[in-house]
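Page 47, continued from p. 46.
Same chain as before, 472 aa.
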Amino acid sequence: MSEQPVVTRFAPSPTGFLHIGGARTALFNWLYARGRGGRFVLRIEDTDIARSTPEATAAILEGLTWLGLDWDGDAVSQAANAARHAEVATRMLESGAAYKCFSTQEEIAAFREAAKAENRSTLFRSPWRDVDPEAHPDAPYAIRVRAPLDGETVIEDEVQGRVTIRNDQLDDMIVLRSDGTPVYMLAVVVDDHDMGVTHVIRGDDHLNNAARQMLVYRAMGWDVPVWAHIPLIHGEDGKKLSKRHGALGVEEYRDMGYPAAAMRNYLARLGWSHGDDEFFTDAEALDWFDLSGIGKSPARLDFKKLGHLSGQHIAAMADDALLAQIDTFLASSGQEPLDETQRSRLLSAMPHVKSGAKTFGDLLEKARFALVSRPISPDAKAEKALDPVSRSILSSLTPQLQNATWSRDALEACASGLAEERGVGLGKVAGPLRAALAGRMSTPSVFDMMTVLGREESLSRIGDAAGPASGN
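Result:
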């Protein structure tokens, strides 16, 4: 008999953007399923009609798509399955695994208030649990699952280990409200069962829910999935992640210019490890990822580490792939697209600008010399480097450059020759060149810039900076 194929799911509530914690949960589920030839399914848990919005659903789908986490089949709406959830509650009632409870909200609230005042357990025990159905009133009722009153419920968790909960701590959970609407705890179990989910990988804030959800699995005679409750993500200060920690939604990371591959790598390492490996490819992550590598302690968001990994991914990317991603970055962040001249120059500049860039924004800033058009406006430092002596150097260098072979070595030899002739260091020639070519003093090598810009553009920029005395 063949082993059951792995099916994992990501089930976000559409009440806002795709949170960084949710993105990591989705990634862990995606890696676990895809690495085992299984299925990764998506369910939108939109039962909270008041707070769920189509815009939030769209933002979640967009975030997952940008991250490169593809799902199998269509995204399922939990709210659309309400009739199926109610049907399961009715079946539980018919089998005796659940019962009708006629207690009103006011009665339950009064009980809890009294229990609190008397310093005793506020766990509500329905007086209707063992009442003869013949004695039931003709009134609205909720359906409650019949939980065991003694013993223990054991959760065998792949991350948290063996977790034991005393059954006298579990209430008879409502599965269908008196208005006929199913509760979230029932809907989750029914949907996971119907979608064939074999492994539930989610935040450890759901750990206690597992014990209550197991009541439904057992009442229906369904297989309980493999549980894996992962620790939450904390900020750099060790506190639970919140708005004060900065970027929270994946679209913010996208718009800050981090490549999706770097985010996948970073999020995978946030709470999971494979030895000491920090930088790895998708193929390696898919091959290595396992639930046993997930730690029990909360992971800490570390922007420095993200930047370092991001820089490694940018440096390792093929130039044409990098250019395509920059096109996408500019579009998604609402910036002007590059024209064909800029794209051509940027592609030529890639080998000189991608090393050391931590984001696409960093790379574009380093490549600014290739993207700007004449006349070049020097900043204050570059303006200072274009004093009369420096302009004279540019004027003297121009005729030599006009006759030079346009290669890096030949251009450097030209500049070195003039520096020697004038009895100055190469920096005294390179500085004015840098200011002329880029209008900035922090740039790639001037000779690399000249090879990217080409003879005509380079000489024109040098001529502009040197002024009339250069003869250009």
